[in-house]
Amino acid sequence: MTTRRSMLGAALATTGAGLFTSAALAPLVLAAAREDDPATAPAAAPRVTPFSVPLPIPPVLAPESTKGGVDTYRMTLRPARVEILPGVRTEVLTYNGSFPGPTIRARSGRPVVVHHTNALDVPASVHLHGASVPQSSDGDPMDTFGPGRTRTYTYPNRQPHASLWYHDHAHHSEAEHVFRGLSGSYLLTDDLEQSLPLPSGAYDIPIALRDARFDDRGALVYVMDDVPGRTTLLANGRPQPYLKVAARKYRLRLLNSSNMRFFHLRLSDGAALTQIGSDGGLLPAPHTTDALWLSPGERVDLVVDFGRYPVGAQVVLENTVGPGTPGEVGQVMRFDVVRTAADPSSVPARLRTLPPLCLLYPS
């Protein structure tokens, strides 16, 4: 029997790297998604006017303790009603009531302990995606903790800086749990990254991109392998938001938290994007491009210089690949340049020197 996974594997094996173009990849993903999907027509979701809501910035979680050189956090997995579509309250699954979850900012060499309490009515497991952790804290799909239970995860942070993310990992439930909101950012830094004059503070912004499907009441609709039906794009949990920016450089930490959707991103005026990092942290040197792919679970760190625009300018972050029409999935969010600002930041020509792989993660 031909399956989605075997079709993708065969295509990759026969076409190699040449497959990954907007012309070739989009039909493949679309066909794979439709293979056993009983309902591909988009739900009649309430209409949303593009760029009518601001981009929310997920809260940074404060540790409840920093004793002994260990940062200790507490989170509760619980349902909540939040506003995603303007004027509509939607039932979601959350960490601490936040959609997406709160951001943890950690430092290499300083351990983090997170106590997760399950206030859902189903088992859960929390996985820190991209982290080097002991097996007991890896969030194995079968290593769940049930309703009313608390599980403690320990993250030693014995690895270089990286933009990581955490999400539910429960066997057979992960896809729906993440679709309904169980994910958040975990930003690990170190002395090397901190020594660089990159944009920081309010100018360092995590942005989680994903797709969603809603019914006519604004409720999330989960159907397995339903990427053609998920034609509402969200950035940090809101549809096609705007972000007011100063005319200076920003660091944008993009995460694709979709189950299946690929993004092919560019600025609407074709201006340059400077990629400085990927899943594993900073690149050895910045890479300038006018567009980039972002696959499910992937992270990309960009620096965008809004100083090249006058105050009053607007530029849209576009997605140029389906499923979905350009009117549905072509506009991700908009940047509105509203003020001038001093900009002491810069992007060095050399970001870091990578040691041999065996020295990055010694046994």
Automatic annotation (TrEMBL):
Q: Which residues form the Plastocyanin-like domain?
A: 80-190
Q: What's an example of a GO molecular-function annotation for this chain?
A: copper ion binding
- Signal sequence coordinates: 1-26
Spell out the protein name for this chain.
Answer: Bilirubin oxidase
**Origin organism of this chain?**
Streptomyces solincola
Q: Does the keyword Signal apply?
A: yes
State the UniProt keywords alphabetically: Signal
Domain of life assignment: Bacteria
